[in-house]
Amino acid sequence: MKKAEVYRNGILAGILIxxxxxxxxxxxxxxxxxxPDNPAISLTLPKNNNEYHCKNFFPFFxxxxxxxxxxxLQCKHLKIDEKDYFTLLVLTARNDTIxxxxxxxxxx
Length: 108
What we know:
Elements: E1 2-8, E2 11-20, E3 23-28, H1 30-34, E4 52-54, H2 59-62, H3 68-78, H4 85-92, E5 101-106
Antiparallel strand pairs: 1-2, 1-5, 2-3, 3-4
């Protein structure tokens, strides 16, 4: 099981979990959820106090990944499988992303 913190503009918004390659969970952080000033991170992940489950990688997070030759170069440089979307997201969306969302891996 792999876990990552999801931040919106530097504020912890929730936790993304990869149980296996066919099971992903996203849950909003309680403090983030209860603050009415904090918006949802995506229209496809409305603010909700329940867990979101997905058999494939969540489209919102998948769309944060590079494509084509950039993805190939990143995976080669990082020595990871091109289909390991969770690890690719964690390693490439830590700091400088297009938009407000950043990702930080939680060490087990």
